[in-house]
Structures are given as C-alpha cells and as structure tokens.
UniProtKB/TrEMBL annotation:
Record organism: Lates japonicus (Japanese lates)
Identification of the protein by name: DDB1- and CUL4-associated factor 8
One Pfam family matching this protein: WD40
UniProt WD repeat ranges: 254-286
Domain of life: Eukaryota
Polar residues compositional bias, start-end: 82-92
PANTHER family registered for this protein in UniProt: DDB1- AND CUL4-ASSOCIATED FACTOR 8, WD REPEAT DOMAIN-CONTAINING FAMILY
Signal peptide segment: none
Family from the record: Belongs to the WD repeat DCAF8 family.
Length: 624
C-alpha cells in the first residue's frame, strides 16, 4: 500500500486514473466546482515517485516520516538548527506549563507609525516601491556571500590593526616578528568567525521541537472515503496536510492594480477575492478564472489598507479602511456594480485594520493610530460608537491591528505602538479599571527591553484558543489566549524579517496547523505551528516585501501580495516537496541585518521618515 502524501494535482487528476472511483470523482467535482486552477496530470503511475519524493523532502525538512507506531524521528533542522540538536528543557519549562489541548492536533488533522497627520500628501505610501530586486538564485547567493566577505575583510583588517597597536611596540617590530603576528591574527580571525557561526546556529536552533510524523496519508484516506468512513473530514484533512504545504508553488497572477496591493480577503464561500491598493481602487476577482468582475473607486483619499466582505451579506457589503482614517462601506449589486460608498466613521490617524464579527452582517470593529477602537453597527443612524481609547498609563497607544475572537465574539485583541497584546471584553470595558484591559500578553524579554518594538499584526486561531502576534524587527510569538494576565509566549517563530512595512501574519490550515508570514527579503515562510520549524519557503514579491497572506477558506492554497502591483495565487501542485534551497543563508542574512539595525538605531523607526524615504525611492524608480 502506498503510504505517501498525495499532491493536489494528483487528487484532481484521479478522474483519468485507473484507481478512480465514485468517491474520488466526487472530490474532482468538489475541486472543479470551486474552479481551483490546478494543472492535470497522471496519478496512478506517480505513486511510487511521490513516495520517493516524500522521503527526500522529509530528510531535508528535519524529520523522516515514519509509521505512527514508531517511537523516534530523525531530526536535522533545515531552518537553521544543527543536526540532532534539541531545545533545552529549562528554556521551555515556563512555556510548557498549562499548555491547553488547543495545541494538540486533532486525531485526524495534522500538526496557522506614529499617527500620520491630516493634510499629508496623498501620494505617500507605507510600502517601498523602489526596493531593489531580490532573487534567491545561486548567483545571488554568490554575490551576497562575496559582499559579506568584503565587509568581513575590511572589519577584520581594522581588528588586526587595533591588535597590533595594542601589542608591546605598537606594531613597529621587525619583519621576522610581523610574520608571526600575521599568523596569530589569522588564527584569531578564524576563531572569531567560528564563534560567530556557532552563535548564529545556536540562535536559529533554539526553542525548536521535533517535527511530528504525518497523520494524513493520501491512499488510506481515499479508501476510507470510498466506503463512507470519515468522509465529511476528508477536505479538512487534505488542507491541513504538511505534504501539500511542502508542494505549494505559484499558480498565477492577478494583474489590475497600479499600486502596491495592501489587502486581500476571500468571501465566506471562497469564490471571490477582494483586493485594495495604493491606487485607491478596490477590485473583486473571480480568482479561479483570473478575471476582475468588478472594479470601483473606494472613495478614500489615501492608501486603501483593508477591504473585507461582511459575513452573511450575500457578498453585497464591503467594509474598507485607509490611511486617511476613514471607515467606509460599499454597497454592491448583483449586476456587478458598486451602488455607492459611504463614510461611517473617522479616525484622527491612519486606520490599518478592521475586525469582523463572524456571524454579523452589519457590525464590525475598527482600530486607528489615534488609539481609538470603534464599534460600528450599520443598522444605526450614527453607526460609530467609541468603545475604548487604548492607553499604557496616561499615554495613548496607536493601533495597527485588531481581531475578534471567533469563539468568544465579545472579546477582541489589539496591538500597536508598544510591545503588549491587549485583550478587551466589549461587555465590561471600564477605562478607570486597568484602562479597561481584560488581560495583556508580552514576551518576557521584551517587557523591559530598551528597543521599543511594535506589533504590526495579530490574529486568533480558528477556535480562539491561541493568539499569534508579529513584532517589527523581532520574531512571531504564539500566546495561549486562555492564560492569565501577563503569561509568557508558548512558541517563537524565527527566520523572517519584519521591518520595512506594517507586515501581516496568519494561520494556515483548517485547524491552524501552520503559521505563515511574509518578509522584507521578499520570501514567504510557513512554519509548523507545533515544532516551530520552517516547512515551506517560497520567493514571493520581486519588489522585496510580502505583506498580505490570505489562505483560502476551504481549499489548499492561498493568495499573497506586497510591493509588487499584482496578486499571486499559490496551490500544492509541485511534483515533489520543497528542498528549502538557500533557506539557511537567507535566515542568517535577515538576522545579521536585524542586529546591525538594532545597534545602529536602538529605537523604534520613525514612520514619517520611512514614508519620506519610500516616496523618494519611488520617484527615483525608472518607468517600466
């Protein structure tokens, strides 16, 4: 019996295979109904090749996949840890305490700016149009490696001169002794380089766990579905399978916008995709056939940051927010046109994010850089109601992100211009009692950190038990939302870089099995949530930064966008799993740049200056 993960291409092409049956043809019809643009290919004779490919993939990704009954897994971290290295128990002990069942996989699912001032130029943007191209090719690696060697040589030359000056005689010895000095210098340099490499490897390998063996297997799952056993869980298991995540590849592009694409959102059924851009326009896509069904002017005066379909509205109501601080609602008709857009709330600073209530077609929340959270109810004559002004002591905290707990819809979490994740309960916000905060979370090492970090994005897991937060020029942290006030993080996801823009983060998989984020290096990273190991690494935007990542609600795939003016669609159609080529070098490069910037600046970045630099670089960018 073939025990191998089956790619989505193989699933779709089962109709042409000699093993296709009635149950499997239903899967084909499911994929066809969603019009997922997967390529077709033969399957029956690919089984052995796929099993062999899976074996290669797991060896590269840190764990050889074995039968569930086996006790041990081979480990070799492709995300940067040394072979056989394990995390220290003392480091994990405080994070393991009180770990809820939410972190354990289901039995059948495998282990997801300073306030801008009004009247500022409308052409400003929070993304860097002029970023240089970055491509993870062998030539690119050689060039970057060469550049590092040159910088290291200059640095080492300075060290050597300093060491000579500090020696007795101040470096004025005769030539016979100078040769000995040079040998000593080379030995010291070599030792320093080895120490640096060891420190980097130790940092990359810290706080990692073993990858668990695959729970979903293609052929047994197909056979079980044929006889009606657990058939209702089939698609969910497929979407959460690590084997398919490791086969994600670029399927196509959606091209219509003339500016950076800042927001993506699938409708609840997954048939339509909304996008918003610096060009102030919103486009509704039939993504499966890659066609724009509707395009309209948002009514905003500056960069559109988010556009979302309201649930249970028949895809007829779209909520939007932008850098101009306006919260607007667009009414769409069944004849593929926009009836009107109207303003329902106004922040005094940029409004980056909206938070939808899962079952409400007429109410949602907004958060702005003015530190205000609005509750908006479209049934009222005055829709906007100020829920809370977020403060730390007497100081307002500008907000970049907000999210409603899908299981406890009266709870919402916010993050912004400090290091704290704050959770509020809409039913009992008393600003005289702890500024209305129900509980706060923060990584323990950032509580008293001198470097002022910001939270650029946070998101709840599918069941509301976990909370994921991405920090600028820091890492991504997973918190248990049920833990008490002040609890430390449970997982840490490393390797990417979040500095140049307000970058997003998300869970991937129907049961939040993976964590996905973009990076300033232009790549997309997917971590296994439980082990914190990278299982997929893809080149995203040539412009240099990937900001938005939107998983499809029901199928294995996602849409991404960033500084490029297009939208990219990803699906698991690769013949073999990823080899994570070049990952370690890119991770080390991101870490070095982060450390250098931390030493150089030592304080949070100035958003006004960042926007000025972006505009300057965009104006210098040669026309295409």
């Amino acid at each position: 019996m073939i025990e191998a993960a089956l790619s989505a291409r193989s699933l779709v092409s089962l109709n042409n295979s000699s093993i296709a049956s009635g149950g499997q043809r239903e899967l084909l019809q499911l994929m066809s109904a969603a019009q997922l643009p997967f390529s077709l290919g033969s399957t029956q004779d690919k089984g052995d090749r796929m099993a062999e490919a899976d074996g290669k993939s797991t060896a590269l990704n840190g764990s050889e996949e074995k039968e569930p009954g086996e006790d041990q897994h081979k480990e070799g971290d492709a995300s940067g840890s040394k072979e056989g290295q394990t995390e220290s128990s003392s480091q994990d002990a405080p994070k393991e305490t009180g770990e809820p069942s939410g972190d354990k996989p289901m039995p059948d699912v495998e282990g997801e700016t300073d306030a801008n001032k009004e009247g500022e130029e409308e052409e400003d943007t929070d993304s860097m149009d002029g970023s240089g191209l970055y491509s993870l090719t062998e030539d690119g690696e050689r060039e970057s490696e060469g550049g590092r060697r040159e910088r290291a040589k200059d640095k080492d030359g300075g060290k050597r001169a300093a060491r000579k000056r500090n020696r007795p005689g101040g470096g004025t010895n005769h030539s016979s002794s100078s040769d000995e000095d040079d040998d000593e210098d080379e030995e010291e340099e070599q030792k320093d380089d080895e120490d640096d490499d060891e420190a980097m490897e130790a940092w990359l390998g810290a706080e990692l766990r073993d990858l668990r063996g695959p729970i979903w297997r293609a052929v047994p799952s197909l056979r079980s579905r044929e006889i009606g056993r657990d058939s209702h869980q089939f698609v969910r298991r497929v979407c959460g399978a690590r084997g398919l995540v490791q086969r994600l590849e670029l399927q196509g592009r959606l091209e219509r916008h003339t500016g950076c694409v800042n927001t993506l959102h699938f409708n609840p059924s997954g048939t339509r995709l909304a996008s918003g851009s610096d060009d102030l326009r919103v486009v509704i896509w039939d993504w499966a056939i890659r066609r724009a069904e509707l395009e309209f002017d948002s009514g905003h005066k500056s960069n559109v940051f988010q556009a979302k379909f309201l649930p249970h509205s028949g895809d007829s109501t779209l909520a939007m927010c932008a850098r101009d601080g306006q919260i607007r609602v667009a009414e769409l008709s069944a004849t593929q046109r926009c009836k009107n857009t109207k303003r329902v709330a106004q922040h005094k600073g940029a409004a980056h994010k909206l938070a939808l209530e899962p079952d409400s077609p007429c109410s949602f929340l907004s958060a702005g850089e003015d530190a205000v959270v609005f509750g908006i109810d479209l049934r009222l004559d005055r829709p906007a109601n100020k829920l809370v002004v977020v403060k730390e002591g007497d100081k307002k905290v500008g907000l970049y992100t907000i999210f409603v707990n899908p299981a406890k819809t009266h709870h919402f979490a916010v993050g912004g211009r400090d290091q704290y994740v704050r959770i509020y309960d809409q039913r009992k916000i008393n600003e005289n009692d702890n500024n209305g905060v129900l509980k706060k979370f923060c990584p323990s090492h950032l509580v008293s950190s001198e470097s002022k970090t910001n939270i650029t994005c946070l998101v709840y897991s599918h069941d509301g038990t976990e909370l994921l937060a991405s920090y600028n020029d820091e890492d991504i942290y997973l918190f248990d939302s049920n833990h008490s006030d002040g609890a430390d993080y449970r997982r840490r996801y490393k390797g990417h870089r979040n500095n140049a823009t307000v970058k997003g983060v998300n869970f991937y998989g129907p049961c939040s099995e993976f964590v996905v984020s973009g990076s300033d290096c232009g790549h997309i990273y997917l971590w296994d949530k439980y082990s914190a190991r990278i299982v997929q690494f893809m080149e995203g935007d040539r412009g240099g930064v990937v900001n938005c990542l939107e998983p499809h609600p029901h199928l294995p795939g996602m849409a991404t966008s960033g500084l490029d003016h297009d939208i990219k669609l990803w699906a698991p159609t690769a013949e073999s799993p990823t080899g994570l080529k070049g990952l370690k070098e890119v991770m080390k490069k991101n870490k070095r740049e982060r450390d250098e910037d931390s030493v150089r600046h030592g304080d949070q970045y100035d958003t006004q200056l960042l926007w000025f630099l972006m505009r300057h670089m965009r104006n210098r960018r040669p026309p295409r």
